[in-house]
Amino acid sequence: MKNMKGTTMRIRSAFSVAAILAAGLLAGCNGSGSPTYISIPPSGATGLAATPSTLTYTTAGAQQQFTASESGYSGTLTAASTNCSGVATFTPSSGTGPSLTVTVTSVAAGSCQINVTDSNSHATTVSVGITTTSGTVH
After folding, report:
1. Does position 73 have pLDDT exceeding 90, yes or no?
2. d(Cα 49, Cα 126) in Å, to the nearest integer?
3. Under a CB-based contact definition with an 8 Å cutoff, are residues 70 and 116 in contact?
4. Domain-by-domain residue ranges, the chain?
5. Among 84, 90, 81, 82, which residue's Cα sits nearest to residue 62?
6. Is the CB of residue 90 less than 8 Å from the CB of residue 107?
7. CB under 8 Å to 106, separation ≥6 — which residues?
8. pLDDT band at residue 108, thresholds of 50, 70 and 90?
9. What does the alpha-carbon distance between residue 118 and residue 122 come to, in Å, rounded to a whole number?
10. What CATH number should be reported for the domain whose range is 49-130?
11. Of 131, 127, 121, the residue nearest 54 (C-alpha)
């Protein structure tokens, strides 16, 4: 009889484990029959931010820098823009985290944005504004 009690306990334990696993699987359902996925950032990563987040120029040919950083991140940081052509240039376009320092050179009056992203789809944006004044002194 003692052996049967041990067998009964093992069966009850096995059913308990199965019930917990089934509950966990059901919790991941979103009602559409497809599983729900979540994104978990790498351990230690705390978010991507740029300092300063705005660069303002009053002349063409001037340079300023910003630093994009993400504490705990050691992957690639990429800087890109779809609207800076003819307004500003920047270098480098990528580097290894946790930080990337970018030098921005004003080209002509206008505004644009430089977006820095990481491999986890985190992003930060730096706004660039250039106002030039020209005229003739008599």
Report:
1. yes
2. 9
3. no
4. 1-38, 49-130
5. 90
6. no
7. 57, 59, 60, 61, 62, 63, 87, 88, 128, 130
8. very high
9. 6
10. 2.60.40.10
11. 127
Structure-token pair, residue 58: 């009053």
Q: Would you say how long the chain is, in residues?
A: 138
Take residue 35 and report the two structure tokens written for it: 């599983």
The pLDDT of residue 137 is 79
For residues 93 and 41, the answer to whether their CB atoms sit within 8 Å is no
Give 109's contacts (C-beta < 8 A, 6+ positions apart). Answer: 60, 87, 130, 131, 132
Over residues 27-52, the pLDDT tens digits come to 445 555 556 555 444 545 569 999 99
Beta-carbon count within 10 A of 104 CB: 24
CA distance 133 to 27: 62
